[in-house]
Amino acid sequence: PEVGGTAVGSGSAGWRKALMQRDRPTLGEHVTAVPIRGLRRAMAKSLAAAAVVPHLVYGEEATVDRLIDLRRELTSFGEHRLGGKLTYMPFFIKATSVALEGFPILNATLDNVQDPKNILYQRDHNISIAIDTPDGLIVPNIKKVQQLSVFDIAQELRRLQELAHAGKLNQDDLSGGTFALSNIGSIGGIHASPVIMVPQVAISALGRIRRVPRFASDQPTAMNERYTPGSLVVYPAHVMTIVVAADHRIIDGATVANFCARWKLAIESPTALLLGNG
Length: 278
Ligand code: CAO
Description:
By secondary structure, the chain is an alpha+beta fold. It contains 9 helices and 13 strands. The protein has helices spanning 12-23, 38-49, 65-73, 75-82, 89-102, 150-166, 171-174, 222-225, 253-268; strands at residues 2-3, 6-7, 55-63, 108-110, 119-121, 127-129, 131-133, 136-138, 141-142, 179-183, 202-206, 210-215, 234-247. The strands form 4 sheets. Strands 3, 6, 9, 10, 11, 12 and 13 form a 7-stranded mixed β-sheet that branches. A two-stranded antiparallel sheet has the order 1-2. Helix 5 packs across helix 6 and helix 5 packs across helix 9 (253-268). The site of oxidized coenzyme A (CAO) has 21 residues, from strand 7, helix 6 and strand 10.
């Protein structure tokens, strides 16, 4: 057989040699070698370190019709107060903090990733945000989200985004994160399977808000009050997915499922998020 242009003999030694040759970079007219440096190197190291962690991955769907209405209602207020648009992200971040209140183990870090001896429960919700920049992925964190309003979070997110795009984030912004959020939905996609940012123990990935047909009687909006349970009336709902990956060595599936249910409840009743963590 031919593998990567190399004739391979029978037996495992032949295959090993062929695989080694296939993985060796070939330089020339058709291939350009680019050293893995800077942000990409940091990303490579962090993700490789997470390879020892057995990931439990769990997904949930939330209906966000009320969130869409609320953001629309706050548009001009947001422009006045923020000097720019209010996106969905500050609501997602606040809902995460509200949900973390009930499940502190998800807001913990480990003393040793390879061989953990202690779970370090963190008081503050320092939510790490994956930001896509022209130079690669960078993950600063918003500190003490439990004490911030949705508007405070929006301002802080904007500051971090601007610094990230200018390549000027400082060490304090980049260290001390306790739970990570990756809003892949701002680019597209329904769900992603995120990789934990060790020594953190959990991360969530959010999908794109999309319009889909759903049974009106199942929805958490005024809509469902008009229909008896079991009614087959369908309406165009706005839904999104949240996928949480957690370190299965210390976190069980029920905890993750209950956390997702709490996040769903928070984002489906977004007005309460304006009141803070409560
Ligand atoms: N579904 C639908 N629309 C969404 C959305 C979602 N889940 N999330 C954001 N949007 C919308 C925003 O509301 C905004 O819409 P409007 O123009 O109508 O206001 C638009 O998408 C663009 O938002 P934004 O990206 O400017 O700002 P944001 O606050 O929503 O997101 C950030 C900030 C940093 C999360 C985002 O810019 C980003 O970098 N996302 C990519 C994260 C990533 O790469 N994750 C993968 C990590 S693993 O490799």
